[in-house]
Backbone:
């Protein structure tokens, strides 16, 4: 029972309704971005923007064309950001959303570095900046909650074309494959099915995901596996190491004392 | 809209957005629906998914709509007529047109005066009148036997419309069209094949257009070409078919219905002409056709006069016909008014929900014109460029004497009332929030303004009667706001003495016993029996069949969703496509999924004779003699063009509305200073002159910069990099924008010559949160001969690094 | 003893150092009051920059001299190295204090610095780093208070000496954790950190290099302080000390090569790219040349020792910088170059560290400890 969104990029018209409705719903401030040749404004999510629609020119059937992709946190099943947070300020909820709690956040930005999709952003301009990323409209007790109230996210609600579909992950995954198998235009890949161990936002498209600079070399296992594989040694290292060091300490000390005594005795004897 | 009215009888989108899901092939030409009508894309995509529909997009730019096209034909701005006539030619040459349909439902069989002819790019009857080019239309008439038009249902007679059409379009073969438009031949052939395939009776082709088609000196003929193509392929009146003119502003259809245009009264009744119509009888005799639904015109006009003048309007005094304002034959369109203003003949202007300082053609000159005013009243949400015209670029406030007033208006969410969408649905909306500060609703302002003016007239004035006697009774006791229900009732119409809305304009009378502010809306305010609300307030999601949703709001006329829907079946009443039956005659009565746009009480063969009920002869017009510039469309070059017309000697349309002074300067053919073709366009993030969107932070954010799109090739040639500041220059002036370099625009090969095209959005101005150059400062003030719509979509420019 | 005067010689160099430190202090206060963006060029693509790369990652590695010396001297009781122990411990302590200071400047919501102590994100490598560094710094302070209490708060001296063995063991153990974990932080950069650096063994390589850089640091430091305070450590002691580094380096080199082959990315070394060149530089300067020096007669000379120290240290600095910058450059783009204020803070921190070292050396029994030991 984990909520998810299926993003069918073949239906996206780049209308940015999702983007502006997210901003409105979440009371995020608007900024004036730099000029961008592709007219994706802002060109990336930032400290004031949970989601943005990337515009790309690409080729399809030998003709130049445009494609658009809404970008936001993918709400990984086993999020690297949450695994990286040493203060538990980011957590995966059973409902699906990966949410951030500024009260616990130290501001180390390791989550930013940890996320394989470069999602968490920082509102650098503040004195005490917060991590900024899509919360999946989940805010259990708060004013920005929708999922918790049984509603679909603001962006999904605003999408005019059906590009965004909200539902249960396993059902959406089935639907994604159904569409892929039914229409030949699709790339045979559900982005997010396996990436980083699976994500709650799933993408299908008729152009390669590289078009939008979606990383395609993300391992299919949760990234936290790598740190767990290392961290699992910690208790052993500390207990074992502690014991070993103590032993060595006392052993070598004793050995030296004995040696010294021998020396002394030797001197006396000599 | 003139193109549609002259082809079908009504100037409105024939189908509606939901119906797009029934389409087999879309031709979107001169519309960027994905950005300007996003909801349309939902239904286009549904058709693609459900029916495997094909989408053809014809546009000079690779738009967000074109991104979804199966075939994208990139053509040169201003070459839609060859593009469309070429498809007709292909359909005729390859026998793909819908013969049974055109023989029965259009004027294809009508015989035309044998002296009708066409030569060197001009139709017969070309001549001059009052120093201006004009056609004598005598040879454009049908051959008649007494009162009946001669017809040849075999369509073989050399003077029948079909043969004339065949001959006319035969010059537009694939080769020629490709040379003019710049669309590669193989792509164009694919377009022809794909779209002409909808000539098959069971297929539905849908043409969607908007400003890329209309904003030309031959915009009306562009629309005609679309209408004719759809008639030829039998696509009108069908589910999934139609000519779908996607109207712009949320209520522009409503305001056009309610007489926004200078030559129309509410409900498309022509404004009387001072010399032509000296009295009511005169008007009725000259303007009422003997056949077709318009023969009821007197009922509509007299009911309207009753709405205007109430009890004062009596049979004895011609229902106060004399009090109606009259036109004098001069151009009273937007440009006409501004020309008069430039000449100092207009003293005061009320700019009510309009921002011509940004949106008007040659906007810098329109701002200059405003300097001539004694006073200016702007009714708007913001201090727009128009309201602040006196501190625009180049203006010197010290020398401007105009007294300016800004009346703050409430936004659409801050008031109640109906809006009419492009698909003719009149939808009632409620107020969401109170207007801020001192802002007032437009009805409030109009009400107070009228009352104040009337008060002034009580002290005397020129011709006070119409003002003093205007029926004006919209007060709501205990409220400051006028009573919307009273206004709505008056628009809908009622019988004198009864306060109940009529449910059909069929009940309107010409004896003064009915009152109706606009006959085409009659019924919208009538109560729905099931929902117990006015019909425009209904919101049932229950599908009445084929996605017509008859119980969702009310669609004019009489809740018909698809116009001319008698054409949905063959003359015997069998649907062309049984799987998509809008109607079916079961031998005794019609099985209907829509409200019939014909007399359903008579035998199908009988109603089949006049499926276009608004036209005098009841048949769709492949050949139309009502327009100023020709019965068939013909290709001319835009007023500013880099190439000479290769199809005839006639370079430009001889009928264009031209103006005088710096405002109307036009670059000559081959002016080497301006080698590139420019077009203007909208984009999703901003709305129109940007007054609202450039004042909304979250919309400024999604597109903060005025820019110009240029091709990678041109950028390379000129050493321009993305984000560079560049000057875009026309013979009328120059503007500075940031360069966006991408395949959105690309050079085209036109008759062997490489032509660069650039694109300019026109949403920016010097007021608001996001400011930028105004594209219209450099657009030409020249218009269509029928409607005077400006040629915003094709002109010449140069571009260089700033 | 208590009556002895505090002394601190003022020299032109020290004045410059003081100015640098003062400037850094001003910037630091400004940063804490106004946020990060006012003093740093950090951005969303480069959330970690100079301060993490130089002050934290490199700082901790270089301060590792403390724990490798501690391991050798206090745990393994290789007595001949005992003369090095106090100065090693001091540099290490100062190093860690600087790291902690840098970290405090680095975190955006510094008033929340304590949160991880109560809200345990134990699944995070950073959690281990954080806990270890905090504890270790504490332990080091306590260790060091053995020396401090010789002069101030003398009544505490005895109890501290009593618990010293525990502190020493902890103080050796903890760095094993966080030195490795600092490398572990970059495990999540799989697919982003250039394959010449990314490996599941990254933590262990970090650990080894932090270990072998310890003696190298001590050679540099003893030669510097030797010049400054006319205090000389027997070359022979140093030579055998760096030998320990040398063995670890050989192991390091072997593991690195085998690992690159195992992961199938050995070819990248000769790719000719920025990354491959930097990698080669790092390995040649930081590992191969030092190994050669270490096991050749060169290491018997003062010059050789210093070269070893400088090269090894430079190699480790380069390694950390490569992991933080060079190796991430392709993935994160070129959008970051530290602001002058970032440089100033880093420089000021180091200057402050040096001043602190000088002050302590002049006022406490650090360098003379060996003599005392020898005479005891
Ligand atoms: N977001 C947004 N939506 C809007 C509006 C808005 O301002 N912003 N305005 C509303 C209004 S009032 C209107 S009228 C509609 C207009 O809606 P559209 O007509 O769809 O809008 P435009 O961008 O003006 O023009 C459409 C396309 O015509 C193309 N074009 C240019 N020259 C030619 C030509 O010669 N031939 C052809 N075939 N195409 C050409 C342009 O490249 C452009 O892509 O949009 C409405 N919707
Ligand atoms: N170059 C170029 N120029 C063009 C076009 C083009 O394609 N290219 N398109 C043309 C077209 S199709 C159009 S429709 C025109 C549009 O031109 P305009 O109608 O002049 O432009 P808008 O920005 O729509 O102006 C509407 C004004 O109404 C205000 N407003 C909004 N809501 C309300 C309200 O409820 N009450 C009142 N009183 N005011 C309100 C807005 O703030 C705004 O100032 O521009 C034309 N100009
Ligand atoms: S996409 Fe990044 S930020 Fe979002 S849950 Fe996954 S790791 Fe965390
Ligand atoms: S910045 Fe905040 S949320 Fe991110 S890892 Fe650090 S403490 Fe956790
Ligand atoms: S799910 Fe909510 S928070 Fe996330 S992008 Fe959509 S609207 Fe924004
Ligand atoms: S609202 Fe839907 S169609 Fe529009 S940009 Fe977002 S995802 Fe695409
Ligand atoms: S009117 Fe506005 S909100 Fe409605 S579909 Fe069109 S663009 Fe979207
Ligand atoms: Mo419009």
Residues:
């Amino acid at each position: 029972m984990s909520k998810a969104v299926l993003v069918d990029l073949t239906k996206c018209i780049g209308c940015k309704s999702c983007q502006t409705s997210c901003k409105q719903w979440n009371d995020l401030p608007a900024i004036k971005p730099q000029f961008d040749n592709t007219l994706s404004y802002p060109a990336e999510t930032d400290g004031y923007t949970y989601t943005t629609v990337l515009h790309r020119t690409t080729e399809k059937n030998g003709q130049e064309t445009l494609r658009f992709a809404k970008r936001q946190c993918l709400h990984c099943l086993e999020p690297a950001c949450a695994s990286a947070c040493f203060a538990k300020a980011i957590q995966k909820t059973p409902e699906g959303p990966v949410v951030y709690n500024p009260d616990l956040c130290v501001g180390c930005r390791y989550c930013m570095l940890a996320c394989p999709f470069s999602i968490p952003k920082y509102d650098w301009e503040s004195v005490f900046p917060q991590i900024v990323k899509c919360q999946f409209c989940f805010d259990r007790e708060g004013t920005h909650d929708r999922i918790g109230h049984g509603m679909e996210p603001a962006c999904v609600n605003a999408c005019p074309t059906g590009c965004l579909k909200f539902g249960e992950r396993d059902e959406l995954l089935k639907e994604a494959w159904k569409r892929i198998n039914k229409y030949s235009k699709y790339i045979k890949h559900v982005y997010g099915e396996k990436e980083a161990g699976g994500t709650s936002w799933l993408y299908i498209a008729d152009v390669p995901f590289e078009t939008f600079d979606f990383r395609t070399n993300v391992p299919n296992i949760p990234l936290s596996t790598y740190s767990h594989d290392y961290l699992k040694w910690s208790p052993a290292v500390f207990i074992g190491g502690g014991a070993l060091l103590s032993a060595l300490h006392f052993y070598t000390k004793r050995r030296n004392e004995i040696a010294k005594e021998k020396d002394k005795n030797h001197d006396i004897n000599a | 809209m003139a193109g549609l009215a002259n082809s079908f009888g009504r100037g409105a989108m024939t189908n509606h957005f939901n119906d797009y899901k029934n389409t087999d092939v879309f031709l979107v030409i001169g519309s960027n629906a994905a950005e300007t009508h996003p909801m349309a894309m939902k239904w286009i995509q549904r058709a693609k998914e459900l029916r495997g529909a094909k989408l053809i997009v014809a546009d000079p730019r690779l738009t967000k709509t074109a991104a979804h096209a199966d075939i994208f034909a990139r053509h040169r701005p201003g070459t839609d007529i060859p593009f469309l006539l070429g498809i007709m030619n292909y359909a005729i040459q390859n026998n793909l047109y819908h013969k049974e349909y055109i023989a029965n439902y259009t004027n294809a069989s009508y015989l035309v005066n044998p002296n009708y002819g066409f030569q060197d790019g001009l139709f017969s009857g070309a001549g001059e009148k009052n120093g201006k080019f004009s056609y004598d239309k005598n040879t454009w008439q049908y051959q008649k036997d007494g009162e009946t038009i001669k017809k040849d249902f075999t369509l073989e007679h050399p003077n029948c419309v079909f043969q004339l059409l065949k001959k006319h379009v035969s010059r537009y073969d694939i080769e020629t069209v490709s040379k003019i438009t710049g669309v590669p031949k193989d792509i164009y052939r694919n377009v022809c094949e794909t779209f002409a395939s909808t000539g098959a009776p069971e297929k539905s082709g849908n043409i969607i257009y908007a400003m890329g088609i209309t904003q030309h000196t031959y915009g009306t003929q562009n629309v005609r070409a679309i209408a004719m193509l759809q008639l030829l392929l039998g696509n009108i009146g069908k589910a999934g078919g139609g000519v779908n003119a996607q109207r712009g502003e949320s209520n522009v259809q409503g305001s056009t219905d309610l007489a926004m245009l200078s030559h129309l009264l509410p409900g498309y009744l022509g404004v009387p002409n001072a010399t032509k119509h000296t009295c009511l009888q005169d008007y009725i005799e000259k303007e009422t056709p003997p056949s077709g639904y318009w023969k009821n015109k007197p009922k509509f006009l007299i009911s309207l006069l009753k709405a205007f003048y109430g009890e004062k309007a009596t049979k004895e005094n011609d229902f106060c016909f004399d009090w109606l304002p009259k036109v004098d034959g001069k151009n009273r369109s937007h440009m006409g008014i501004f020309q008069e203003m430039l000449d100092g003949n207009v003293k005061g202007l009320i700019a009510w929900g309009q921002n011509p300082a940004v949106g008007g053609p040659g906007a810098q000159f329109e701002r200059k014109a405003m300097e001539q005013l004694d006073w200016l009243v702007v009714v708007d949400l913001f201090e727009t460029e128009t309201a602040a015209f006196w501190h625009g670029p180049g203006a010197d406030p010290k020398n401007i004497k105009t007294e300016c007033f800004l009346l703050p208006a409430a936004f659409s969410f801050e008031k109640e009332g109906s809006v009419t969408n492009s698909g003719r649905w009149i939808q009632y909306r409620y107020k969401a929030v109170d207007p801020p500060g001192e802002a007032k609703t437009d009805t409030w302002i109009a009400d107070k303004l009228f009352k104040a003016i009337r008060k002034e007239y009580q002290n005397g004035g020129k011709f006070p009667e119409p003002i003093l006697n205007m029926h004006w009774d919209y007060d709501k006791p205990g409220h400051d706001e006028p009573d919307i229900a009273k206004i709505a009732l008056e628009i809908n119409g009622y019988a004198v003495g009864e306060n109940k809305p009529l449910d059909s304009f069929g009940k309107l009378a010409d004896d003064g016993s009915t009152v109706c502010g606009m006959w085409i809306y009659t019924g919208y305010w009538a109560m729905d029996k099931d929902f117990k609300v006015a019909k425009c307030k209904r919101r049932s999601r229950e599908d009445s069949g084929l996605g017509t949703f008859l119980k969702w709001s009310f669609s004019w006329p009489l809740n018909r969703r698809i116009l001319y829907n008698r054409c949905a079946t063959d003359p015997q009443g069998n649907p062309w496509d049984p799987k998509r039956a809008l109607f079916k005659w079961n031998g005794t009565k019609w099985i209907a999924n829509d409200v019939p746009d014909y007399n359903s009480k008579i035998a199908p063969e009988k109603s089949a004779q006049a499926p276009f009920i608004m036209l005098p002869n009841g048949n769709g017009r492949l050949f139309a003699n009502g327009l100023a510039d020709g019965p068939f469309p013909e290709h001319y070059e835009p007023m500013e063009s880099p190439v000479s017309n290769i199809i005839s000697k006639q370079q430009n349309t001889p009928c264009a509305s031209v103006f005088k002074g710096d405002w109307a300067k036009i670059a000559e053919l081959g002016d080497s200073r301006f080698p590139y073709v420019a077009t203007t366009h909208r984009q999703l993030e901003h709305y129109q002159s940007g007054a609202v969107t450039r004042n909304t932070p979250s919309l400024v954010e999604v597109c903060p910069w005025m820019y110009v799109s240029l091709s990678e090739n041109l950028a390379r040639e000129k050493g321009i990099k993305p984000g560079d500041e560049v000057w875009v220059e026309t013979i009328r002036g120059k503007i500075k924008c940031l360069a966006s370099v991408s395949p959105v625009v690309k050079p085209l090969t036109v008759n062997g010559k490489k032509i660069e095209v650039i694109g300019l959005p026109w949403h920016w101005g010097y007021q608001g949160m996001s400011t930028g150059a105004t594209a219209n400062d450099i657009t030409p003030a020249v218009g269509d001969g029928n409607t005077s719509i400006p040629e915003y979509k094709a002109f010449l420019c140069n571009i260089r690094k700033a | 003893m208590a009556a002895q005067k505090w002394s601190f010689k003022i020299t032109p160099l020290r004045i410059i150092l003081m100015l640098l430190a003062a400037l850094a202090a001003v910037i630091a206060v400004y940063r804490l009051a106004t946020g990060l963006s006012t003093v740093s060029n950090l951005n969303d693509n480069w959330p970690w920059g100079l301060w993490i790369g130089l002050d934290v990652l490199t700082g901790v590695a270089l301060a590792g001299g403390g724990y490798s010396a501690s391991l050798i001297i206090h745990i393994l009781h290789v007595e001949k190295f005992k003369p090095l122990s106090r100065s090693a411990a001091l540099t290490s302590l100062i190093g860690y204090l600087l790291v902690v200071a840098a970290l405090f400047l680095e975190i955006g919501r510094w008033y929340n610095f304590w949160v991880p102590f109560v809200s345990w994100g134990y699944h995070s490598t950073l959690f281990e780093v954080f806990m270890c560094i905090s504890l270790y710094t504490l332990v080091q302070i306590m260790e060091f208070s053995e020396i401090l209490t010789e002069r101030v708060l003398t009544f505490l001296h005895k109890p501290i000496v009593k618990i010293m063995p525990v502190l020493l063991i902890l103080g050796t153990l903890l760095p094993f954790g966080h030195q490795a974990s600092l490398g572990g932080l970059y495990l999540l950069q799989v697919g982003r950190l250039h394959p010449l650096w990314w490996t599941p063994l990254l933590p262990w390589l970090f650990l080894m290099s932090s270990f072998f850089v310890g003696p190298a640091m001590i050679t540099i430091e003893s030669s510097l302080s030797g010049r400054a305070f006319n205090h000389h450590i027997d070359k022979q002691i140093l030579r055998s000390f760096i030998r320990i580094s040398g063995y670890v380096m050989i192991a390091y080199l072997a593991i690195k090569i085998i690992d690159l082959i195992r992961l199938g990315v050995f070819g990248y070394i000769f790719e000719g790219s920025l990354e491959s060149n930097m990698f080669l530089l790092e390995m040649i300067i930081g590992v191969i040349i030092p190994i050669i020096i270490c096991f050749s007669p060169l290491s018997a000379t003062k010059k050789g020792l210093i070269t070893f120290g400088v090269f090894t240290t430079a190699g480790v600095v380069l390694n950390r910088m490569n992991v933080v910058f060079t190796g991430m450059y392709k993935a994160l783009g070129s959008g970051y170059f530290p602001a002058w204020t970032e440089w100033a803070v880093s420089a000021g921190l180091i200057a402050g560290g040096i001043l602190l070292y000088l002050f302590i050396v002049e006022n406490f029994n650090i360098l003379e400890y060996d003599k005392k030991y020898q005479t005891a």
